[in-house]
Structure formats: C-alpha cells, structure tokens
C-alpha cells in the first residue's frame, strides 16, 4: 500500500520509453520488454554481427541482445547503464540475456566471463564499470563464473583519433593486460555496446596470447 502511494508521488519510469511503470514492472515496461529490437536466439548469431570479426580473428561464438539504433529506446537504456548510474539495470538486462542464451544453448562451452575493463582513472570518475554490471548478470543467467578483474586497462598513451585502423588496433591491444590465469579456458568477453569491434578484438588477442583455448564475445547491444 505504502509502495503504491510512493509510486503515485514519485513514479518509477521505464528506462527505455520513460512512461511510468506499474507496480509489477521492474526497470522496463511490458510494452518495451516485448517490442525492443532484439536478436532472435532461435537462429544462429546474425551475419552482420559475425561479419565484424570474420577473417580478423578466430573466435568461437558471438552474440548480442539488443539491436542499437541512435536516438531510439535501446540508446536510452545503454545511456542509463553507462552514464546515469543504473548498475542494477545493467545486471537485470545481463541476467535476462544470460537466461535466454542458456535456453537457446549459446555459450555452452564457455568456462568464464571477463568484462572489458575501464581505465582506473575513468573508473574513479564513473565509480563503476558498466561492462562488469552486465557481465555479473550474464554470468548468473548462464550459470558460469565471472572474473571481474581478469583484464586491466592501462593508460592509452596516444589518442586513437586520426589513426588508421591497424595502428588504432595496435594501440588498443597494448592497452590491455591479462591478470587472470586463462590458460586452457574458453573465455567469454563482455562489453556494453558493439560498434566496430576493435575493443573486443584487442582484448581477445591479448587473452588468446595469454593461453586461452577459445574466445567468444557478448555485448548487450550492437550496431547493425
Ligand atoms: Zn517502456
């Protein structure tokens, strides 16, 4: 009763469309839950997602949850997770994705999840790593462990702006350091949004070089 009263005074809003939520709804409304652009896990991972890595790196599987469109409701969600402190939302969506992926038999061979880290300075500014929030939810949905500090991001000495693709990649690659023992393991690297794939590729190269058996990728949203 008291909760209903509070909800009347300060309605909780859907993180995607910003309409007020019903008491029975968490984080996103039923309409958004059903209608947000998502990847169909009944099929193989989409070609446009695989095309970002094919021929560049030998990976095992790649998947995403939402299809990102600038200015849309998915962008609202991702913005809230990244910049507005919505850590629980990241965990909630990661868990939802993890459960759905498990049901559709994706990532069955994965040993553990490693999130893309933030550089220490940026972590201090933001106070949390959004990829870790998503990774935590995903790992519990998939029922596999997470190594939250498996990777470390060191200071990038040069700006990536104006660099060509291969030079960018070299700079990015050297900014990651593997801190966990990944030898012989199948690692699922997790990030919030996938655009070019350069960050995931750079982290994957380092993890493979540290002795991992296989690498797979998951992001909560991906640009088509
Ligand atoms: Zn909504």
From TrEMBL:
Q: Name one GO molecular function term.
A: glycosyltransferase activity
Q: Does the keyword Transcription belong to this entry?
A: no
Keywords for this protein? Glycosyltransferase, Transferase
UniProt domain Phosphoribosyltransferase: residue ranges: 177-221
The record, for Pfam families, names: Pribosyltran (PF00156)
* Domain of life of the organism encoding this protein: Bacteria
CDD domains per UniProt: PRTases_typeI (cd06223)
InterPro entries noted in UniProt: ComF/GntX_DNA_util-trans, PRTase-like, PRTase_dom
Q: Which PANTHER family match?
A: DNA UTILIZATION PROTEIN YHGH
**Family according to the record:** Belongs to the ComF/GntX family.
Q: What is this protein called?
A: Phosphoribosyltransferase family protein
């Amino acid at each position: 009763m008291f909760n209903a009263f509070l909800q009347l005074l300060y309605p909780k809003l859907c993180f995607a469309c910003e309409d007020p939520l019903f008491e029975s709804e968490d984080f996103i409304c039923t309409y958004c839950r059903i209608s947000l652009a998502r990847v169909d896990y009944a099929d193989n991972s989409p070609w446009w997602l695989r095309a970002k890595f094919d021929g560049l790196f030998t990976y095992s599987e790649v998947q995403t949850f939402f299809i990102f469109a600038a200015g849309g409701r998915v962008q609202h969600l991702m913005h809230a997770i990244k910049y507005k402190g919505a850590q629980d939302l990241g965990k909630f969506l990661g868990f939802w994705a993890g459960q759905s992926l498990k049901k559709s038999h994706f990532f069955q061979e994965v040993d553990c999840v490693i999130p893309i880290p933030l550089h220490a300075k940026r972590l201090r500014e933001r106070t949390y790593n959004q990829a870790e929030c998503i990774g935590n939810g995903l790992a519990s949905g998939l029922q596999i462990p997470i190594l939250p500090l498996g990777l470390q991001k060191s200071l990038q000495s040069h700006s990536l702006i104006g660099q060509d693709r291969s030079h960018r990649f070299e700079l990015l690659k050297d900014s990651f350091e593997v801190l966990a023992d990944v030898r012989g393991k199948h690692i699922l690297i997790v990030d919030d949004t996938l655009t070019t794939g350069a960050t995931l590729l750079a982290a994957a190269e380092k993890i493979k070089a540290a002795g991992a058996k296989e690498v797979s990728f998951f992001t909560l949203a991906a640009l088509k």
